[in-house]
Amino acid sequence: MDLRSFHWSSELGGDSGGEWLAAVSPIFTSPTPFPNQKSAIDVWASSSFVITQSSCDCASLVHDPSKFGRFEQVGICVILSGTIDERASGATGRLGDILLLDLREPIELVRESDGTNSSEMTLWLPRSQLLDRLKGLTTLNARVVKADQPGTVVATAALRALLTQLDVTTPSVLDQLARGIASLTADVVAAAAAGEPNVHTAHAPPLESFVTLSQFIETNLAARDLGVEKLARTFGLSRASLYRLFEPVGGVASYIRTRRLHRAYQELMAPGLQNRRIGPIAYGAGFRSIPAFNRAFRATFGQPPRTTRKTQVAFPKSRARTIEEMGPLARWLSEIS
Q: What gap in Å lies between CA 307 and CA 31, rounded to an integer?
């Protein structure tokens, strides 16, 4: 298969915010108004990988894996300038860092400039290409490998060099190079994780166990009894095993509360649900007390739910349902294996 490409820049004119978002929709949507700004995005795809390179002054992006079907890819994102915060986990990527993005998991990215614009390049691959080498980690999503970690500069240099080969190398050779870079990056991630004092890679349950539990949590957020006891009983795990498994993401209770808040956030911002009362949304996400929900929401998102709802805007093309309606990122991710 020939290499396919898509290129867009605000220098072409038009609605820069809408066009930029349309390229990544519905993988990513924006919960806040996306201003017209100097921005650009390029997408390349072969039969086994997708590369994106983008720049903007600022952006708030959300990926909700419960919508638009299931995507089984992981992104190896290199921050080229500015910062990228992953709000759900509290992780922050800066110049030269590598940020992993697992499309099986909810993602909330906030991109900001830091004296210049926010720019990045991401190599998207089937998650199996990384999973085989990183089975000891409890989660891939939002894992940051800092620029000063051993091997990071080599991996980022290889990723950036891949861009220079897109127009001069055959697709089959590019596929081999992408697989090699994935292996190199996985080794760098594993080495960085081995040096983290709170990550027990030798004894942690496999990544697939965490994914299974997180999917169960996502499906049962409205259940009032969702917690350690229910998870232990359902999956036959000890409390100690669950605590170890969820330690990297702040613990079981913290993870469930975060997922409930993000579920409520998505419901508040969803087009067509503006008239739905906030109380039923909070209860539907699993909260038992409206005041407690309001306090937790404000602490997490910086403003009360009612104020947040007022910022709701229509997501350009974010409700796309068919391959033809999707932006190039989603369309080509759905084709790689």
A: 13
